[in-house]
Amino acid sequence: MIRPLLTAAFIACPFGLAAQTPVTVALDWTLNTNHVGIIAARDRGLYEEAGLTVEVLPFSDTSSAALVAAGAADFGYLSALAFLSAKAGGADLTALWATMQHETGRLVYNLDNTEIKRPADLSGRTYAGFGSAWEAALIGTMIRHDGGQPEWETVTLGTGAYEALASGAVDFTLEVATWEGVNGRLLGRRQGSFRYQDYGVPDQHNGYIATRAGVLRERPEIVKAFMEATKAGYDWAADHPEEAADLLLKAGDFARPELVHASMQAIIDGGWLRDESGGIGLIRADRFEGMARFLYDSGVLKDQSGQALVWPGDLSGWYDQSWRD
């Protein structure tokens, strides 16, 4: 049974006290290296030291954004698109943390197709997609920015896109460099790639930890305790990627341990986890607002009637890192 944190009978404990406060965290996907700091904080006793008993909820068909907004989870790990879409739609969510400091997604193609050398060459070709409106805005922007005609055929394949690309059944797809990209390299697949941010798409954070605005307002001590312990977990993982991968393997059901280890190393080598100053989990206004503006301007964010939302202007209230003070 999912137990919400803030009930009428709940008595909050200040940060660091021994009494254990129950907290639930919903994940955006099955356990992976994006979540490593949460697992490190839980399994290395950092949450316990902060006075918290943290339950990581199993991934389900209900999105982490919906679970947090409904009060069925106290905190959630959300993809950037999921957070911005839910918040723009009126969900009571506030971002507290950004895991990846730069965009980890990229467009990939099969190197055996020698006719593809730049995004403009994707015009008229076949894309293996995942069914989100964001994909069309992203691909169209990249092709147009490179001087091509934004026209292509889409077949929705989900995770089957990567096998289809490897076999030559489709011409291009999207992947996360720190997971599918690493997996492709381990499998010896010949793939080229284009970074989104090199072709007209703003760089962005990937992976937000969020809570309800009401929790942040009414129980800031719980937010502070949870987030400081979470930060310590990610800091430790960044400094100990091999040990962190081992800890993650013990926590989840992974068919290929080598993928987990290679993914952790790719995150560190790629400079995704820490920003240019060495900070971790920081939300930068330019990256946050740049992607939000792109999604608004592209018509990706819509209301319940399907109408594109109007840019709201100031987004500073969409995120809060006062727990760092």
From TrEMBL:
InterPro entries, per the entry: NMT1/THI5, SsuA/THI5
Pfam families noted in UniProt: NMT1 (PF09084)
Domain called SsuA/THI5-like: residue spans: 32-244
Signal peptide start-end: 1-19
Catalytic activity: N(6)-(pyridoxal phosphate)-L-lysyl-[4-amino-5-hydroxymethyl-2-methylpyrimidine phosphate synthase] + L-histidyl-[4-amino-5-hydroxymethyl-2-methylpyrimidine phosphate synthase] + 2 Fe(3+) + 4 H2O = L-lysyl-[4-amino-5-hydroxymethyl-2-methylpyrimidine phosphate synthase] + (2S)-2-amino-5-hydroxy-4-oxopentanoyl-[4-amino-5-hydroxymethyl-2-methylpyrimidine phosphate synthase] + 4-amino-2-methyl-5-(phosphooxymethyl)pyrimidine + 3-oxopropanoate + 2 Fe(2+) + 2 H(+)
Iron found in the keyword field: yes
Entry protein name: Thiamine pyrimidine synthase
Cited Gene3D superfamilies: Periplasmic binding protein-like II
Similarity comment: Belongs to the NMT1/THI5 family.
GO BP terms, alphabetized: thiamine biosynthetic process
Record key words, sorted: Iron, Metal-binding, Pyridoxal phosphate, Signal, Thiamine biosynthesis, Transferase
Molecular-function annotations in GO: metal ion binding; transferase activity
UniProt keyword Iron, yes or no: yes
Reported function: Responsible for the formation of the pyrimidine heterocycle in the thiamine biosynthesis pathway. Catalyzes the formation of hydroxymethylpyrimidine phosphate (HMP-P) from histidine and pyridoxal phosphate (PLP). The protein uses PLP and the active site histidine to form HMP-P, generating an inactive enzyme. The enzyme can only undergo a single turnover, which suggests it is a suicide enzyme.
Coiled-coil stretches noted in the UniProt entry, renumbered to this chain: none
Pathway: Cofactor biosynthesis; thiamine diphosphate biosynthesis
Quaternary assembly: Homodimer.
